[in-house]
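Reviewer comment 2.1 asked that we show a complete input and output for one of the modelled complexes. We chose the flavin-adenine dinucleotide case, as it is the one discussed in the main text.
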Amino acid sequence: MRYEAPTTINAAVKLLAGKAGQARVLAGGTDLLVQMRTDRVAPDLIVDVKRIPAMRAIAAKSGGFRIGAAVSGAELGANKALRKAWPGVVEAANLIGSTQIQSRATLAGNLCNASPAADSVPALVAAGASAAVAGPRGKRTVPVESIAVGPGKTSLKKGEIVEAIILPKRAPRSGDAYLRFIPRTEMDIAVVGAGVNLTLDSKGVCTAARVALGAVAERVILVPEAAAALVGTKVDAAALKRLAAAASAACRPIDDKRGTKEFRIKVAGVLARRAAETALKRAGGSK
Amino acid sequence: MSTVRVSTTINGDAVAYLCEVDETLLDVLRDRLGLTGSKEGCSTGDCGACSVMLDGRVVCSCLVLGAEAEGRDIRTVEGLAAGDKLHPLQEKFLEFAALQCGVCTPGFLVAAKALLDRNPDPSETEIRFALAGNLCRCTGYDKIVRAVQSAAAELRKG
Ligand SMILES: Cc1cc2nc3c(=O)[nH]c(=O)nc-3n(C[C@H](O)[C@H](O)[C@H](O)COP(=O)(O)OP(=O)(O)OC[C@H]3O[C@@H](n4cnc5c(N)ncnc54)[C@H](O)[C@@H]3O)c2cc1C
Ligand code: FES
Ligand code: FES
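Response of the prediction step:
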């Protein structure tokens, strides 16, 4: 095994694309090193991206944000402008692990690890975030929901790397929120996670919404039917009830030690409703 | 497996070492540098016994590669006391009997110091939240929280 810490994205892509065996990006290492320790992966090459300055920064971009793929959860939480514009994304990222894990864990690592229960991903999907991908054949920008294709599997091709997560410009009167259910208050894997992002017009009518669920399918899912329940309404009790029903209906979960199918389906509706209520408040609406 | 040469700073001293590519910072500290204060509880980021400061942030050294420390600033529990004079957190852990077997203690001390450096007057909830990544099988946590509160009060007096 070889360890490399390049200082440019091009150099990182070259290393990853050029290696015959298994090559892995190392961001915070909070998934990768655990997987190496437990012999689930045995890379021939590790490319540490934390020394690439462009990947370490949070930049304002076309009214939105470009978050370098090596930015840690703690750094996200310390960015006031980001917290103000996208509180749901930041609260989801900051739910990951402990203080120690927050010092290292990244959004891009959470995304590329492709766990169906990854906490920041439903919030990113709801936010309409995209991933800037660099590879041997150039660059492309894709919606974050197209990265994970199944547990531990991504659509990234050999040599491709996520450079940054891009959050779009915020329309006025918008709000987002993320909630998860876990048996304790921190340091656990989501049994269900729900992210909601919505925009209101000047009369308080919802003009756009996105709803995403975690841990209820083989990957994080976008639920357009749940979002449709909100659009055109004042996000009143009847709309929230339809949202909850649509969220529950979209679930195709498994039974495991953390929760049964029935429990996950029910809780997905409840959390989607509560997240929508918080997003509504943050958008300046009231219920 | 290839070997990496690393130059870094540990507790203010320049240190150079050779390590294997897959060797963790925790293993380097304990097995190569004789700094056995940091403990190995789980080696998967769950227990916090291996907590150290890396460029001013608390991390699990079991989830950092030794190779990553190149040019970084590392602080371990060994750097907490000033010579023979214990840090107020260490004094208060003793005074409040905030340890029994002691395996978790170095990690709690490092994580508590990281908290107080950022927030000199944390509430009990903030202390419990900040230390949620440190597990203790013996004390039931209460004495640890009291010790941190008391050390915080002492440090605020200056
Ligand atoms: C104690 C503990 C608690 C945890 N709690 C939670 C939790 O509450 N919620 C949660 O969702 N997760 C949790 N996790 C999992 C983990 O911390 C997160 O998934 C984290 O966001 C991973 O980010 P990272 O930067 O550490 O990724 P890494 O471990 O560095 O990488 C993860 C994977 O993504 C790939 N990768 C990383 N960056 C890129 C990139 N830029 N381009 C392409 N591929 C890339 C890596 O090759 C690797 O396969 C926990 C882990 C631990 C150890
Ligand atoms: S040994 Fe590192 S967290 Fe347990
Ligand atoms: S004192 Fe024994 S684990 Fe904490």
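Chain B has a mean pLDDT of 97. We note this here for comparison with the apo prediction described in Section 3.2.
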